[in-house]
């Protein structure tokens, strides 16, 4: 089945009644996701999850939470990521969420949800798993869409038995990965006392991950019994500091970042934070001068060339941005986010044919990046292929939950594309999924 049809078929099954929605914004950044992936990989290996099958994605939200809704993504709120003090604490979160995947808790919740009319908005949440609309270019891409908050909380809530099971597994994963399991205790202590608060004042993590004194005592006992000798690595500390430093530089005031950048654990992270802060002030000259120093230190780091391209593109220096993104893509040729940036720069530089080739490569590696689909539709339109422009627009609207709009553009695409061709069949997939969703809502 076509991947879009599979995704929206889930939507059709899961959506039933409308509930009030709130915005969910994903922060997509190649550097941050690479750093989180480096920290997650030993944990995922210990959990027996296939290599490269799970991506860690950041949600822009100042509250403290992390959760899973499928077997491909671990979501973590920016507030929790910025709250943590060590790489071990982050790996404790990742280990706990990986345990929910490995222990079959997600599958069980899907089975329960099929018979529940209280689950609403879940299909849109699933569509959000990897999509991005570019709502905040300074934060390297974001996606805003509605999710039924009450329904998603019901779906994501874990039982005490699931939490106990996940804690046990997470400690084993951390030991195997060389992380200090004491960080699990430190993490739970952050939420200590939350269960005594009114639900409206609790952090989402406390609402969906029940924390009791018995649970805390059990985790402490397991950690003590483990007598762990963690294999602390400078590499884990580096990537944690880099992800946290870049994220904070985009989310907090530039003045806050510039006051603290020199306290970064390494010179390159300090320069990275300063470059982002200067860019956001905006002071393009200082941002680019800082990037020159940074690239001189790490000339073969694709994620720094990606940041360089972003700063240039957002400073309306499209030709220079093309060169910077080209260097990043040469160093990381399979990174969909970098390829998407390169395609965006080529469009801005008035090279739609080259942009089309690069954006199709990005789309092939990450079908659900809505920014790439938006730019791809523009590239098709600029090269005179209105049928493909309509098709890609239909797919983008479908992935962001705008199924009525997707249906309109899919019908237009079907009229313009050769009947029976592969693109025409894709338009039929969108129409089938949208119609299945509409019939389920009736």
From TrEMBL:
CDD domains: M48C_Oma1-like (cd07324). Residues 1-23 form the signal peptide. Residues 38-221 form the Peptidase M48 domain. Gene3D superfamilies: Metalloproteases ('zincins'), catalytic domain, Tetratricopeptide repeat domain. Keywords: Hydrolase, Metal-binding, Metalloprotease, Protease, Signal, Zinc. InterPro entries: Mito/Outer_Membr_Metalloprot, Peptidase_M48, TPR-like_helical_dom_sf. Its cofactor is Zn(2+). GO terms for cellular component: membrane. The keyword Zinc-finger does not apply. GO terms for biological process: proteolysis involved in protein catabolic process. GO terms for molecular function: metal ion binding; metalloendopeptidase activity. The keyword Electron transport does not apply. This is M48 family metalloprotease. It comes from Thalassovita mangrovi.
């Amino acid at each position: 089945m076509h991947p879009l049809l599979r995704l929206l078929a889930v939507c059709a099954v899961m959506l039933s009644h409308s509930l009030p929605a709130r915005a969910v914004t994903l922060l997509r950044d190649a550097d941050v996701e690479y750093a989180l992936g480096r920290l997650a990989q030993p944990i995922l290996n210990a959990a027996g999850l296939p290599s490269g099958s799970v991506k860690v994605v950041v949600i822009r939200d100042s509250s403290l939470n992390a959760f899973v809704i499928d077997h491909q993504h671990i979501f973590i709120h920016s507030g929790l990521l910025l709250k943590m003090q060590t790489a071990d604490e982050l790996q404790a979160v990742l280990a706990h969420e990986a345990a929910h995947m490995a222990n079959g808790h997600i599958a069980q919740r899907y089975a329960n949800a099929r018979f529940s009319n209280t689950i609403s908005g879940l299909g849109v949440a699933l569509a959000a798993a990897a999509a991005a609309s570019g709502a905040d270019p300074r934060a390297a891409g974001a996606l805003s869409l509605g999710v039924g908050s009450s329904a998603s909380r019901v779906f994501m809530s874990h039982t005490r038995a699931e939490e106990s099971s996940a804690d046990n597994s997470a400690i084993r994963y951390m030991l195997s990965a060389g992380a200090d399991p004491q960080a699990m205790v430190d993490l739970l202590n952050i939420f200590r006392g939350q269960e005594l608060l009114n639900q409206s004042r609790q952090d989402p993590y406390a609402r969906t991950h029940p924390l009791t004194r018995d649970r805390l005592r059990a985790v402490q006992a397991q950690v003590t019994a483990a007598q762990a000798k963690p294999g602390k690595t400078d590499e884990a500390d580096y990537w944690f500091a880099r992800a946290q430093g870049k994220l904070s530089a985009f989310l907090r005031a530039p003045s806050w970042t510039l006051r603290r950048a020199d306290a970064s654990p390494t010179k390159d992270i300090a320069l990275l934070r300063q470059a982002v802060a200067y860019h956001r002030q905006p002071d393009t000259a200082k941002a680019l001068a800082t990037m020159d120093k940074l690239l001189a230190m790490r000339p073969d780091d694709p994620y720094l060339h990606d940041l360089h391209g972003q700063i240039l593109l957002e400073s309306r220096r499209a030709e220079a941005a093309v060169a910077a993104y080209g260097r990043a893509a040469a160093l990381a040729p399979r990174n969909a986010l970098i390829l998407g940036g390169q395609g965006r720069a080529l469009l801005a530089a008035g090279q739609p044919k080259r942009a089309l080739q690069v954006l199709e490569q990005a789309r092939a590696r990450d079908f659900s990046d809505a920014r790439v689909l938006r730019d791809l539709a523009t590239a098709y339109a600029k090269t005179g292929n209105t049928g493909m422009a309509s098709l890609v627009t239909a797919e983008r609207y479908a992935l962001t939950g705008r199924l009525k709009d997707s249906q309109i553009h899919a019908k237009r695409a079907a009229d313009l594309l050769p009947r029976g061709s592969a693109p025409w069949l894709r338009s039929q997939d969108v129409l089938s999924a949208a119609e299945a969703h509409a019939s389920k809502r009736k």
